[in-house]
Design a protein that fits this description.
- A hairpin with a 2-residue loop joins strand 12 and strand 13.
- Helix 2 runs antiparallel to helix 3.
- Strands 9-10-16-14-15 form a 5-stranded antiparallel beta sheet. Strands 4-5-8-6 form a 4-stranded mixed beta sheet.
- With 341 residues, it is of the alpha+beta class.
- Bound molecules: flavin-adenine dinucleotide.
């Protein structure tokens, strides 16, 4: 560590680097019991990553990025722009034992009010769309919306049923996003990804590897790009209309009118989670600043001043009510990031 001054203000351990510019000069640690030894790996990594040109911020308020607009601070967040930068982040964190959390558009996540310890990798700047031998390849940070639009421009169709789903191609692949009878797995051919220790791998399409809102990737894998095998279609104007129709339907149903993360729970086999929640009397139920949507009972919304705890506790109340009435345990579709229990 170069000329770092360490001081403790009673709440946090701070390290100040006088030779750095103002934006970088304060290195804030939220862990009350942080020792000098414990923060050293972080200082080294922060230094190395910024030197190699990766945008990285500390003490970053995640609520600025989540679709629910809730969530506390990440110790660090990195915004890599290519696979090489992701490899650098992963190998440095892996070697130093720093936990890594992968995110895309954060439209299907609930981030703890206490934030996320370690490093968050935000993949939304990994951009690119490539046509290759009949395949349409989308880099992880492309919005699903753009992937659909551009594939249609290239007279390739199939993804239009997913029109209006927010978030990135990487997040959609991770969660096997779906709507109107189609999901990512319908057209998935392969995905390139990196394992938590920075190894580059390719996930081929196995017929049984994806299931409803689930993909075969392991926690910590970072999806870099997804190759889709789409249908060649000279009359792609019809697909464009279809896509706009599905998006308009969502708008008409009020899906974009409130802050949400989409469906909070997975549908149990052959059942609708929304319908179970409604029949359990929870539609419109409020808890703190959170509410079960009056338009779609499987949406939990932030009325404006909700905390992540409000949303989490409301989801537990919903689970309890459905369990009591039907004996069915609803499984969360939304990813929980950070500590909740
Ligand atoms: C209004 C609204 C409507 C929605 N409608 C639908 C719908 O109809 N169908 C549907 O399936 N979903 C729907 N969603 C949920 C959400 O938009 C999708 O699940 C979306 O695909 C999530 O993408 P994301 O980039 O935001 O992922 P995030 O929310 O950032 O992450 C979701 C999960 O994927 C992981 N992840 C993200 N990116 C990567 C990556 N590059 N590599 C590895 N793991 C990664 C994260 O760790 C996390 O576990 C809706 C959400 C909203 C707000």
């Amino acid at each position: 560590m170069k000329n770092g001054l360490i001081f403790h203000d009673g709440r946090k351990t701070n390290v100040c680097f006088p030779e750095w510019n103002r934006a970088q000069s304060l290195f804030v640690f939220q862990w009350k019991k942080t020792s000098f030894q414990a923060i050293l790996p972080y200082v080294k990594i922060f230094d190395k990553l910024t030197e190699s040109g990766i945008r990285i911020e500390d003490d970053f308020e995640m609520g600025k990025l989540t679709s629910l607009r809730t969530g506390g601070c990440a110790d660090y967040i990195a915004f890599p722009e290519n696979a090489g930068q992701i490899a650098d982040i992963l190998s440095l964190c892996h070697d130093s034992g720093i936990p890594v959390t992968v995110t895309g558009g954060l439209t299907n996540c609930l981030v703890s009010d206490e934030g996320i310890r370690g490093m968050v990798i935000c993949t939304r700047h990994i951009k690119g769309l490539v046509m290759k031998g009949g395949l349409f390849i989308a880099y992880a940070g492309e919005s699903l919306e753009n992937v659909i639009n551009k594939s249609i421009e290239h007279n390739l169709t199939g993804l239009e049923e997913l029109g209006g789903i927010p978030g990135t191609a990487g997040g959609a692949t991770w969660g096997n996003a779906g709507a109107n009878g189609v999901s990512i797995s319908t057209f998935f051919f392969y995905a390139d990804y990196m394992t938590a220790d920075g190894k580059l791998k390719r996930m081929p399409s196995f017929c049984d590897a994806f299931s409803y809102r689930k993909s075969p990737f392991s926690k910590g894998d970072v999806i870099l790009s997804t190759a889709f095998r789409l249908k060649a279609d000279r009359n792609s104007a019809v697909a464009r209309e279809k896509k706009e129709y599905y998006k308009e339907e969502r708008r008409r149903k009020g899906q974009y009118d409130a802050l949400s993360a989409g469906c909070f729970f997975r549908n149990p086999p052959a059942l609708s989670a929304g319908s179970l929640i409604e029949q359990a009397g929870m539609k419109g139920f409020e808890h703190g600043g959170a509410m079960v949507s009056t338009r779609h009972a499987n949406f939990i919304i932030n009325k404006g001043n909700a905390s992540s705890r409000d949303i989490f506790e409301l989801s537990e109340l919903v689970q309890n009510a459905v369990e009591k009435k039907f004996g069915i345990t609803l499984e969360r579709e939304v990813s929980l990031l950070g500590k909740f229990q």
